[in-house]
Amino acid sequence: MPDGGTLRKVREERLRRTVDLCVTAHPFYRRRFRELGIRAGDIRTLEDLQKLPLVDKSDYMASPEDFRLRAADAPGLTFEESTLWNVAYTTGTTSGMPSPFFNTAHDQYHIMLQALHCSEAEGIGRGDLIANLIPLPPMPMGAFLCVGRTAEIMGLPVVNALTGAKSKEYPVRRGMDDAIDCVAAASPSVFWGVPSFVRGFFRRARERGTRFPRARMAVLTGEPVSAVLRAELAEHLRAFGAEDPQVRVRYSFTEMQGGLVQCCNGAAPQNLAPDLYYLETVNPETGVPVPEGEEGALALTHLHRRGTVCLRYLVGDLVGIRNEHCPHCGRLGERIILRPHRTGTLVKVKGMLINPELVFEVLTADRAVSEFQLVLRKSDPKDPDSMDQLVLLIEAEPVEHARLTGEIPALIQKAVMIRPEVVFVGRGEIHDPMKSVKIKRLVDERTHESALISSHRP
Prior knowledge:
Blueprint (H helix, E strand, L loop, with lengths): L3 H22 L1 H10 L20 H6 L16 H4 L1 E9 L5 E7 H18 L7 E3 L9 H13 L3 E3 L15 H11 L3 E4 L1 H14 L8 E4 L6 H14 L5 E4 L27 E6 L13 E7 L10 E13 L6 E11 L3 E4 L2 E3 L1 H9 L6 E8 L9 E8 L5 H16 L4 E4 L17 E3 L7 E2 L5
Parallel strand pairs: 3-4, 3-5, 5-6, 6-7, 14-17, 15-16
Antiparallel strand pairs: 1-2, 8-9, 9-10, 10-11, 12-13, 12-18, 14-15
């Protein structure tokens, strides 16, 4: 396990090589360095990165190809460094299409090693069988690809549920019950998926009396996970027979091709590939790093990539980090010590700024709420100056309607100072897990642009 000095040496050696390649063969940074009058030799240490301005996701979305190293312009690259392995996709472009994220063979091999280290830290090992509960996406996406890479590098079997929106032309996806039967036949020990989907999968499995006798762990990615949801998933695992249920929550994003992981229940997510990725927390307006441990915008720098490469790229979250050894496992890397939340998530309702996450916490804490969605609309849709309305759509059993109607509005008013209108809907009306991976928790139907208060990005 490297000490801080050894890790810093490796990081800065790789940073210098990456910067040299960017100046030579990276369209976006080649232009940026020229415009700023900066040479490759000016960026030699991690602190020198502060000479570069931050890169916003909109820059990447505008022209993803410009963030790809041009092998033809970089003589001396090895076959692995210059050969395209695959393309993952992330946030949409300005044209509405998803943004490609290019991995060379060099990148793929290092991502596989990253997957090995992360899963070993999480406690996945020989004898495990992984159930991939990530719905089959319409394009290669990091969350789905990550499960397969992990199974490959660890030599583990994996059963793919392959749920998602059904198509007559491409009948390759399963419905929920078929997926449960398929997964149960394989008897997995690890269930890997988006939290809301895993919860629905477990609930439906228990309704049907399906058994998973080897179940012991859930690996969650793609959505925030409250303490209440973690407890519920642990309870499901226990009901399936797990004596010591393990719930791991990953903080992941495509640009990291994996993410930060927990080595034990409740641990801080940690960067276990610090030789590949350097993380900073910065003031999003000035680019100046904030003191370690304080909240700032998360910026990512690739240290050892050859496909898509980003320097000081704003992920889109506010976090607090410390670069230190984990007190539980001793591994070294940036640890998330303040809960991540998206930038620009405050919304104005009836002239007041509210944080929707506080509403979400109230709702996820009530086990009777199966699904929910917060809708902001005008009392008169034709009149943009009419009164704002805060409408809460809830999916719950009818026997719970009276209690929820009496309790939930008061709890939300206490949290955000505004009382919502509660509307109960049928199963599947808010979110059909067969059609989309993530639930859209907040829908703003108001027409005026000032409703959404964004401090940094849309």
